[in-house]
Design a protein that fits this description.
Blueprint: H1 7-14, H2 19-28, E1 34-35, E2 41-42, H3 45-57
Antiparallel strand pairs: 1-2
């Protein structure tokens, strides 16, 4: 079971301690969350990590010109 972010961790992740501003940051980064009855946001580290992995997997292909010079991956056949 994944661990919930503390208020401090959520503030550090989003750069703000205001729930509405946190919501905007999370929405902009496509990170899912649950709004509790008290208005605070709640999410787990798994939610954060899955959003990060989804963002990485949607980047351009390995053969693109965005790779640093000298960095080569074999082409899958």
């Amino acid at each position: 079971m994944s661990q919930l972010l503390t208020k401090t961790e959520l503030s550090r992740l989003t750069g703000t301690s205001q729930p509405e501003a946190q919501k905007q940051v999370l929405d902009a980064n496509r990170i899912p969350y649950v709004r509790r009855k008290d208005g605070q946001l709640s999410l787990t580290w798994d939610m954060v990590n899955q959003a990060a992995l989804a963002r990485i997997s949607s980047t351009p292909a390995a053969n693109s010109s965005t790779l640093p010079s000298g960095f080569k991956l074999p082409i899958a056949s």
